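Predict structure. Input: Peptidase, M16 family protein, 238 residues.
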Amino acid sequence: MKKFIFLFFTAGLLVSTISLARFSEDNEPYTEKTPKEVLDAYVKAIGGAEKIRKIKTLVLVMEAEVQGMAVEMSTVRDMENLRMMQQVIMEGNVVQKTVVNNSEGYMSAMGQVQALSPEQLETLKTNIYAFPELYYEEMGFNLKMGENTEIDGEPAYTLLVTSTEGLDSKEYYSVESGFKLKMTAEIAGDVEFRDYQEVEGVKFPMKVSISNAVLPVPLETRLIDIQINQKLDDSLFE
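Output follows.
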């Protein structure tokens, strides 16, 4: 269970390759895009850079069911002070918690507490941003276009991303809507984003599905609460 919990929260960070079908020769080719154009289209689709940059704090609460047990997963982000807290609650008990507070951080699970290494801190800092895709170039990520594909029958651009820590990722963006449809992760597996809905001018995926070798069936999560630019208690990051 400890391994499963850790996998969920690394889903947005650690990514690997998967095998996806290519278009047949009968398909019309997509308009050629650069990585910047694909990311710009995504940012525009979810509300625009101006609105996204106005998000200074963000609280997301998701729920799921694991082997008949209710699971609540919450993430608290403080972009101005480079702070983040993630926790998993099962049967009313906190079973995993990760805290990043600028240059310090730790992860606790099953009664054990472990300080985060400098490398882990740098990786998790990327996830402090509400939408890190807006900051990929600023953070020095290497971006390349991959081969076009389909995600659940929807034409998609493939973006190949390498972080400053050397983590490689594949991300898939809808040709039509610009939305991010899927990413893959070496540890977390495949992560799909669905049902984008607008909250205070910014669109969030209301459903996230995670599939990997550890989970017997895909983990279907639902976003049940969003709080934008709320004042955060410092105790959350202790």
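Residues 1-28 have pLDDT under 50 and may be disordered.
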